[in-house]
Amino acid sequence: MVGMATHVITGAGSGIGAAVARRLHARGDDLVLHARDAGRAKELAAEFPGARTLVGDLADPDRLSWAFSHQTLPDRVDSLLHIAGVIDLGRVGDLTPRTWRHQLDVNLISPAELTRHLLPQLRLTQGHVVFVNSGSGLNAYADWSAYAASKHGLKALADSLRHEEHANGVRVTSVYPGRTASAMQAKVHQQEGKEYDPSKWIDPESVATAVVMALDLPRDAEVNDLTVRPGR
């Protein structure tokens, strides 16, 4: 995806999302940054001059249609980057439906809903949908059931979308980062009762490099699944 393109990005406020947004903003691409509320949108617009914002609460996917109906969706979308996510660890015997639903809503159902709304634009540009998944989208361990279920579901969403939209020229990539130094990782360590040392984990900039590589790959090829593991 060389030359000026328009990218819709969720999760641009921190971690991997912020790293990807900075990279694309620096090279002059147009950004449409998703924010959960107007206050957050204002902060993102200040951080990325020239970027547009799209407001809607991913924790409430049933209301995204209503929220988007009161805004102007971008006419052009070259890529849709699903990077926002939430996590709450807990044992199956302890997790409540509310905790399950929150992670499924933000990590799975809202990405599906946002994709549905922007597919017409993506088909026009033969664009690219990138799902920043997780190692938990491939394996599930003790205490990770709800988060891993949401991410396994995200893999299924991406795989189905790829088959459905291939004839329309839409590329679909899933990226599975291992533990990445971010606010989410700090929360995970807190929930695990472990000391957090960011130097042990992947730098968000390294995952951003992988995402941008997938976007920029020539049209004769497509990265379907990309696993990024800690290198130290």
Give a quick summary of the entry.
The chain is of the alpha/beta class and 232 residues long. The protein is 44% helix and 15% strand.
Secondary structure elements and their pairing?
Layout: E1 6-9, H1 15-26, E2 30-35, H2 38-47, E3 52-55, H3 64-69, E4 79-82, H4 97-125, E5 128-132, H5 145-165, E6 171-177, H6 183-192, H7 204-216, E7 225-228
Helix pairs in contact: 1-7, 4-5
Question: Notable features of this structure?
Answer:
232 residues, alpha/beta, seven-stranded parallel β-sheet, globular
Task: Describe this entry's structure for a reader.
Strands 3-2-1-4-5-6-7 form a seven-stranded parallel β-sheet, sandwiched between helices. The mean pLDDT is 92. Helix content is 44%, strand content 15%. The protein has 232 residues and is α/β, with parallel strands linked by helices. The relative contact order is 0.14. The chain is globular, with a radius of gyration of 17 Å. Helix 1 packs across helix 7 and helix 4 (97-125) runs parallel beside helix 5.
Task: State the shape.
Answer: globular
Q: From N to C, what is the helix and strand string?
A: EHEHEHEHEHEHHE
Helix content: 40-55%
Spans of 5+ residues with little confidence (pLDDT < 50)?
Answer: none
**Number of helical elements:** 7
Largest sheet: 7 strands, parallel
Termini separation comes to 31 Å
What fraction of the residues are assigned to beta strands by DSSP? Answer: 5-15%
The beta-strand count equals 7
Overall pLDDT score: 92
Order of neighbouring strands in the sheet with most strands:
3-2-1-4-5-6-7
State the secondary-structure class.
Answer: alpha/beta
Determine Rg (CA atoms, Å): 17 Å
